[in-house]
Design brief:
Blueprint: E1 3-10, H1 18-36, E2 40-47, H2 52-61, H3 66-76, E3 80-88, E4 91-92, H4 94-101, E5 112-119, H5 127-138, E6 142-143, E7 148-151, H6 166-190, H7 200-209
Helix pairs in contact: 1-6
InterPro entries: CE1759_FMN_reduct (IPR023932), Flavoprotein-like_sf (IPR029039), FMN_Rdtase-like_dom (IPR005025), NAD(P)H-dep_FMN_reductase (IPR051814)
Organism: Streptomyces omiyaensis
Keywords: Flavoprotein, FMN, Oxidoreductase
Length: 210
């Protein structure tokens, strides 16, 4: 059974926080779907509030602490990344943006990313499309089709006949993200090493067989 590495990045500032809760729910939905596809899943959750001082010092000194370096390496080395930020002034939080400012612009190329955000009102749900998707498009990541925004009133509600409740959106996002992570991982596993040199005689033989 193949093991896939998932990293969830939570930018919540309080403990406990709805941001961390949403991250945990998205992890759970993704893990469940991957288990159905017979994958083992190794999950690590990064709380950015624990790295806030290290992130600020990095901008001043230009050098990451060991803890910050390890966190960045975990994110860039993951098979899939789940990111959840609280909404401040109609956009992602400064802590969230500062962390990803420290990630090399090419380090997440092709990496599946599931987007999530939390806020006090549903009016800020467009943050997923006008702020988060452009950020990860710049980082060349592959964002899952469904992103999840959770307003305060979403918790504990199942939705009605006109709207999808938060549990349904989490499940759908997790299933889509799991499918994306598995597909990308399989392509990586099946790809031929770009540095491998194929002898010219073998190339000719392969052409004759075709």
């Amino acid at each position: 059974m193949r093991t896939l590495k998932l990293v969830a990045v939570s930018a919540g500032l309080s403990s406990p926080s709805s941001t961390r809760l949403l991250a945990d729910r998205l992890v759970q939905a993704t893990r469940y779907r991957l288990a159905e596809q017979e994958y083992a899943v190794d999950v690590e959750v990064l709380e950015l509030r624990d790295l806030a001082v290290d992130i600020a010092k990095n901008f001043v000194t230009g050098f990451p602490s060991e803890a910050l370096r390890e966190a960045i390496d975990k994110v860039t080395g993951a098979d899939g990344v789940i990111t959840v930020t609280p909404v401040f002034t109609a956009s992602y939080s400064g802590l969230f943006k500062s962390f990803f400012d420290l990630v090399d612009p090419t380090a997440l190329t092709g990496t599946p990313v599931l987007l999530g955000a939390t806020g006090g009102t549903a009016r800020h749900s467009l943050v997923l499309d006008h702020a988060l998707r452009p950020l990860f498009a710049y980082l060349r990541a592959r964002t899952a089709p469904t992103a999840v925004y959770a307003a305060s009133e979403d918790w504990g509600t199942g939705g009605d006949e006109y709207t999808e409740g938060l549990p349904h959106r989490i499940t759908r996002a997790g299933e889509e993200f799991a499918t994306l992570v598995a597909a990308v991982a399989e392509r990586k596993g099946d790809s031929v090493d770009a540095d491998e040199v194929v002898p010219f005689a073998k190339q000719l033989a392969d052409l004759r067989l075709d």
